[in-house]
Amino acid sequence: MTFLKKASLRFLYAVKTQFSKAKLAFGLKSGLVKSVMILPYKGFGNQHEIYFLGRVLRDRGIAASHLEDGKWKNFSKMYKRFMSWEIPNVRVKAEFQGFRQIATTDEEGYFEIQLQSQSPFHLDSTWQEVKLELLDQVVKNQGTVRTNNKVFIPLDPMGFGVISDIDDTIVPTGATRLWTMLKTTFLGNAHTRLPFPGVAEFYQALAKGKGKKDAHPFFYVSSSPWNLYDFLMEFLEVHGIPKGPLMLRDLGLSREQFIAGSHWEHKLKQVEKIFEIEKHLQFVLVGDSGQHDPEIYLQVVKDFPGRVKMIYIRDIKVSRHPDLLAIATELHSLDVPLLLIKDTGEAAAHAASQGWIPEVAIEPIQAAAEVS
């Protein structure tokens, strides 16, 4: 980065920080900010470690959506998600099985929890709850601000994990077409936005394997902003897509970058974070050809040899075929197959051939995938 760019970045970041402080001070003084909330993002861990992020924000009371909600109501909720009021420099306490950590929110209201124990945690299920409490007073008559966060911890023995992209992998978003993406994001809701045909059925079958509950746990990584977290979690639930930790990113201006992290850097970092913590799991990786999922997954294979069993790539960009052929060839030399799929039915047939889902699941998935 040139000196001029660095100077511009420092100046713009200082302006942004001062504006955020003034905005929050005005909101507190005027009464616009009447209550605050801890918004935790589902986490993951192993028998000795738990990891997740969260954010402290003004509570704007964004309720769940309904199928009959109109475009204006959808836009209003999405506006509230993006026009957030972040609460910086406050402490959040996390407690789990006698272990405690206190984290302080950054300028954007984010905090990070990473609880560690030398002795194994006591686990009776794959989903555990971590208690969270805000330790500092932000508004008058605040009262106690508490919540719980769910954290996925695999129990032995488990099968492989699945890491899936969302945009143009699970749901059509037009991520490569800005105007289309903005319209679908701001005017739709979790009910009206529909996944690709057959995805829910395939993911359900893959999660269960051949009958064992949670045989193949799911993790989701997307370049969408954290502002969409509750929307995307609701989307997964509404459409019967297996729940799992969801890793997004902050798109705002940072000290180091005009946009806080590129698609490539963000996704690679988050996928590899999952690999580092879920160190006893192998993984199937699912993405699309629209952006750089194949290149990112190739790098993951190189960084974690022997940990990737399979890569499925939804084919949405024909012009990328020469690049994909070169990547598939390199992956083959590393003993990791890449399958370029036109629809979910193709992935289901392959998964059944590997014994990952039952044969009887293929026909319903393929039937669903053919629905236009």
From TrEMBL:
GO molecular function, one term: phosphatidate phosphatase activity
Family annotation (InterPro entries): APP1_cat, HAD-like_sf, Mg2+_PAP
Superkingdom of origin organism: Bacteria
Domain Phosphatidate phosphatase APP1 catalytic: 160-315
Pfam (any one): APP1_cat
The protein, known as: Phosphatidate phosphatase APP1 catalytic domain-containing protein
Lineage of producing organism: Bacteria, Pseudomonadati, Bacteroidota, Cytophagia, Cytophagales
